[in-house]
Amino acid sequence: MPDLSDRLGRLVGAATVQIHAPKSDAAERTRLWGTGFFVAPGWILTCAHVVRPYLDASRKGRFGVTGAVVGASTPVEARLEGMLWRGGKDGDIPFEQDLALLRLADDASAERHSCVWFADWAGRTLGDERFVHGYYLDGSGQVRTREALAKVSVADGAARRFEPMVQFKSGLSGSPVVAPESGAVVGVMKAGQQGYGGAAMDITALRGFGELYAEVAAAHDVWHHGRLGRPDSWVALQDRAARAPGRGATADAWTPVDRATALHHLAVLRRAVPRSAESEKPGDICVLVRQAMGRRWLSNSRPLPRIWRDGHGELYDGARPLEARVFLRYLRRVTEYAESDGLHTGPLTAWLDAREARLSGKREAAGPRSPAPPPAPHAPGNGGLPGEAPPAHLDTETRPAHPAPEALPARPGPQALPAHPGPEVLPAHLDPRTRPARPDPGPRPDPGPRPDPGPRPDPGPRPGPAVQPVHARAAEAAEPVAYPHPGSARSIVVLEIEEVSCEDRRFRWTVRLDHIGEDEELLGGSDAGGPGVPYRDLLHEVGEALTGAFERVDLGGSPAPLEVALPYDHFDEPVHQWQLNHTVPLHQDPAKEPLGVHRPVVVRSLERLRAPDPERNARHADRWHDLHAAERISSLRLPPAGKSLQAAVEGKAPGEVPVMCRSAGERTGKHALGEVLGQDHGVALWHGTGHAGSPCGDACTALHEQIGDVFRVSRRADRLAYSVWQLRRDIARHNNGPHPASGLVLFYDRPLEDTDVLDAPA
């Protein structure tokens, strides 16, 4: 396609600029510092290492820009708006942080230049050919243009390394990296490496700018949509390439014009979101994508999808878009989500109606074809997975009628979910959408190795002052949320901790996502054959993996549960009191409260997970289903009064849940839990710092009364995890003194299911 290649080269060249000193710096003005390119009107993307050496006080973050159009005769000025690198002036910058955004100081200049079209997808690129266009200094000190074609030899996270046969000279850092077959910028040149070719960053690293990225992406998509119909536009070139012989274009194809129109509507929708509001969340976007695709999908993009545009970019096979119907399903789900946030989606809805009608006409003209998968029963034709009930803000049946634009509320209240097996409505007192927005705490500092806290004291439950039953305040207000189940479009984070050496307290760990009833994703862990992690470093090691996992599956109004599978001898580990940012004192900042305050945290048995016995698992499943079929749950107090422990646990009545005021590490409590596990029970509660051999006292009575309140509010076993979570939240945020239930631990050990564990690709 020589004609298309020439056109692509001209489009890239028109948007690429030299970066040098500002006009006020006469001594440096003629020296090339690096390359950059326009990603949106007035916005230039380049490498952080290009601008980092020149951020001194005298220049005030200002740079000179010279390009084929803007600054061709007289350089224009740009200022630094953002940089992903947060370190100092020295040291290597990681690939995913080596980006900077500049903005033209003169708005009039922003109206004259061209912009590249940067991809919304993050496909695997190993072996693909890439086109690089930028500037360098020749031997005489003159600025020259450099164009090069090179194949990607290594794709590792955000890094893309090129074959060594092509050499990249100094000055090319910040150049656009283009995929010729799709006509899209897919990366940013980082460096030339002598004897090793060059290296670049994937364009998805741009998502690291957060809200600034959303602003730039919206401006980019609106600008390109405004040039539809022009023969010299990026979209026109992409459309010609897509229709070229051998590209497999069909009546059901999602065309570059479709893509540009859809992204324009999403950009307009995104611009309507108040800057202080959180409309799109990665977990919500992942749910929308899974529902649109109707098949297995790994939610492990690096980095995560941040805006609706990124979710659109997940609907590709490499760089090739899936069928149009998949994109239309996704966009329908976005409109439903946006309407539940009070946004006006009329233009996008009207375009979707017309595009779907056109697709139906093409299908009729093309003749019969394989039938589409049946729609989910909760909303005909909504594009969800069969039998899948979406979260409330994604459900068409539970969404209120869309008001006129002038009457839009700022943020809607929570909506009801279809009951399965209990009502999945998120109460207002649990829903962060109904709470005032918290200030952004900023980036968390690296805490370093966690000091070994040593043995924990055994204070036991303290009676303290008279305490109101905190959880009972919400008993009449709302139903607790049911635990994620197959078809709920919700996922669970599972952390497994295995003891390697009890002498020096070393552990191995893994973090995975369980997409209930679908598949599992292994996200990370320690070396399976290694010596293990010292206990003092364990939380520091798992913290990053847990944070990334939560970000993937937390929905806008419902945090994903955390299941921690522990060895039996470590059931006393207070995982619900862990802080992912443990350098900040407890309760100093709500954003840094313990895990059990932020989400449901439950304990599971590692032995059951790692060494399952088919017969015992069957008995475990029978007990589990019997308990969850009971309309009411109640306490089975352990150890029982006047009755053998074994007889009490073995012959418990339907709906009874074993409960202890002793800890799992204390002799009597450990023996009782051994009976609970031995009789194949899956649900129990105990006090993390319960009393030892002394008789029960007033504190125990208060604890059991509090647990009785939890059971009355929960009513069913599948609501216990969220009910205990609400109790922990209330204690942390509304109770100033000690509380008898502050150390309450929930053992919630689901029976094993036949699911596939899928490794996350690099």
Intertermini distance: 32 Å
The residue fraction in helices comes out at: 25-40%
Averaged pLDDT: 77
Strand content: 15-25%
Query: Would you tell me the structural class of the helices and strands?
Result: alpha+beta
What is the total tally of β strands?
A: 25
Report the major sheet. 7 strands, mixed
Radius of gyration, in Å, reads: 29 Å
The helix count comes to 18
Query: Which regions have little confidence, pLDDT < 50, spanning 5+ residues?
Result: 368-477, 582-588, 755-762
Using the alpha-carbon principal axes, give the shape: elongated
Explain this structure.
The radius of gyration is 29 Å and the shape is elongated. The strands form 6 sheets. Strands 15, 16, 17, 18, 19, 20 and 25 form a 7-stranded mixed sheet that branches. A 6-stranded antiparallel barrel has the order 1-2-3-6-5-4. The two termini are 32 Å apart. The chain has 18 helices and 25 strands. The longest helix has 21 residues, at 346-366. It has 762 residues and is an alpha+beta fold. It holds the Pfam family Trypsin_2. It comes from Streptomyces solicavernae.
